[in-house]
Design a protein that fits this description.
binds threonylcarbamoyladenylate; binds magnesium ion
Length: 344
């Protein structure tokens, strides 16, 4: 019933399960038997597999169309489980684990041999995260195994923040999606590497860098690095079909956005503006979507708005860039990848 074959397409039938106790147990059984299950976390939906089963892990790459040298984060349901997959835990990593897990942060540590190469893309390190979502924690605990999970989107598409987003991308490719409603954080976890001399930021995300630095001191941020820091950074990301333009924060930002919007509309491209409420007043008569009041609101809504632009047939999205503080850094990172260099 759960993994039935659709005879016409020979695809797996994808079922969306409401996250009842019973369905969480059912999905946990699917995971432990080697199947893929998409599940909610506080950041984005993940596409989970038993991290200790190389055959299941390979299915993730196939379902997403993801390059297999891009390693996966291993999700655990209790901080004690870090020791099961990490060979050692430096002091600062331990502080982050004790203070911020569960939460939207991931630590990269030396791996134990038990973690298959399929998970780490052949690296000798492993990324570990304990999500805050109660549904995710129950699912992982019930499955009895660590669960590796990338975001549950097709590779290069915006990450999914609802079960419907997952369904739109992966229908026919996975047997189950556990529906936990909308994600509260909306961007992926902040990834910190503890395997070099100094802690290094590999990906800005759902936890503010400043908050982590307050606990462990300075974290190295390599900007504009030509070499991809973590394998995931070198790939195109988060792109809707619509062209995305980003107005860098600064002088006459609203004016630049309006000019770009006018130029696009005049050349026949249906265009929508995405900005914080502080700017909406500048765009009378335009199609405008609110990104909320704060950078945190913007992060929570961004991926859903990019997907909506495709659903509603827009050819272009003109987005407000933010200052690099707090969640602004994460929003700017996602915007910059989505726009592929089209800054205005
Ligand atoms: O919030 C999140 O982190 C979500 C949810 C589902 O937990 N997951 C997620 O996974 O964003 P994914 O696969 O889309 O992104 C994982 C990032 C990639 O950029 C990958 O290259 C990096 O983490 N990564 C994973 N393992 C690594 C390792 N051992 N060393 C360096 N980077 C690593
Ligand atoms: Mg991803």
């Amino acid at each position: 019933m759960n993994k039935s074959i659709d005879e016409k397409t020979e695809n797996i039938r994808t079922v969306i399960y409401e996250a009842s106790e019973e369905n969480i147990k059912l999905c946990a059984r699917l995971l432990s038997s080697g199947e893929l299950v998409a599940f909610p976390t506080e950041t984005v939906y993940g596409l989970g597999a038993n991290a200790l089963n190389p055959q299941s892990v390979k299915r993730i790459y196939a379902a997403k169309g993801r390059p297999s040298d891009n390693p996966l984060i291993v999700h655990i349901s209790s901080v004690e489980d870090v020791e099961k997959i990490a060979a050692s835990v430096p002091e600062k990593a331990r502080a982050v684990i004790e203070n911020f897990m569960p939460g939207p942060v991931t630590v990269v540590l030396p791996k134990k041999p038990i973690v298959p190469n399929e998970v780490t893309g052949g690296l000798n390190t492993v990324a570990v995260r304990m999500p805050a979502s109660k549904i995710a924690l129950k699912l992982i605990a019930e499955s009895g195994c660590p669960v590796c999970a990338p975001s549950a989107n097709t590779s290069t598409r915006p990450s999914p923040t609802t079960a419907k987003h997952v369904y739109d991308d992966l229908n026919g490719k996975i047997p189950a999606i556990l529906d936990g409603g909308e994600c509260s954080v909306g961007v992926e976890s902040t990834v910190i590497d503890f395997c070099s001399d100094k802690p290094r930021l590999l990906r800005a995300g759902g936890m503010e860098l400043e908050k982590i630095e307050k606990l462990i001191g300075e974290i190295e941020v390599v900007k504009n690095s030509k070499v991809a820091l973590c394998p995931g950074m070198k790939y195109k990301h988060y792109s809707p079909t619509a062209e995305v333009f980003v107005a860098i924060e600064g002088d006459e930002q609203a004016k630049r956005m309006l000019e770009k919007r006018t130029e696009l509309q005049n050349s026949g491209v249906k265009t929508v503006i995405v900005c914080l409420d502080e700017l909406t007043g500048a765009f009378d008569g335009c199609d405008v979507w609110s990104a909320g009041k704060t950078a945190r609101d913007y992060a929570q809504r961004l991926f859903a708005l990019l997907r909506r632009s495709d659903d509603e047939g827009y050819g272009a999205v003109v987005c407000q860039g933010l200052s690099d503080e707090g969640m602004g850094l994460s929003v700017n990172n996602r915007l910059s990848k989505a726009c592929g260099g089209k800054f205005i």
